[in-house]
Amino acid sequence: MIRWRKGEVVRIRREWPGAVELDVTxxxxxxxxxxxxxxxxxxxxxxxxxxxxxxxxxxLGTGGYAMVVAVPNRLPEDPSGPGHLVxxxxxxxxxxxxxxxxxxxxxxxRLREADSIDGMPVIVADLHSALAPIxxxxxxxRQGVRVAYVMQDGGALPSWFSMSAARLRExxxxxxxxxxxxxxxxxxxxxxxxxxxxAAKYVLExxxxxxxxxxxxxxxxxxxxxxxxxxxxxxNAAGVLLGRPVAALRVSEGDKRERHYGVSHHSLTAYGRxxxxxxxxxxxxxxxxxxxxxxxxxxxxxxxxxxVPVPVDGLHEALRESPVRLSTMGRGLEExxxxxxxxxxxxxxxxxxxxxx
Length: 357
Description:
alpha/beta, five-stranded mixed beta barrel, 27% helix
């Protein structure tokens, strides 16, 4: 289940909030490794490190690092301060965090009886790679929006893994990250998607929330065996809290697999079968036969949801100006433009729901 190695840190490659990328020597040679200083401390060149090399051996595209499990000869200080939520529970790296919704939180009284997000738009997406293009479409249509990212636990559990979320937070495109379920490391921690949305509204004071799993989704090529099923559950959470769900379609022209070409079966299953609350489904007005395919497939969702045609003029230019690198399943902007346009269209539509101001 786990491939264990001992290694020695050769050099620090780069770092961003919550994460340090390293070069480490192991018996097989030199490899790239990732450490989360809030969990294991900050490794230094010359340190011996204990590694989990499973993802590296599997050649995972998103998580292809050796992961630092411990720096045995220089353990970090014991944590201090409040916090009783345990995440990554009953694993060797379970961590205690302060949840916005727990009794010791300064926000507990506000969240204890909170039962509505009062019409706040909630954009739901299948993949983490939709986060940046959604924001590109949103800010192309409207500036000055305060946005929270609610990160589900279907992909990476530590929010620190996401360089794009860290950068978007740094430049103010995100007011903060809320990590929910077993995910951790956000600006705000919460137990469920429901309290995560409430925290986005009342702790981060967001005008709009984006819900998606962290980097590294899981799919099996079966109808139900994919982590993006949680997108449908997020639509339900937004609906039951009296928000305004916006279901971003996963669209691809670059992925030639039949189940993902056009509108992915992930969207059709999550929104068509799992999502019981009605949502707005922005349908990008893409040209040609491919655009017709997308519109025809989206019609399958019209039984429960409201299909909203969204022009894509100007969105390509907005995407080119993205402050972070755009990539999905190893494909960049020009390699799968339809994917990024569909995500940006969801952001453009959500901007129209915010009213004047």
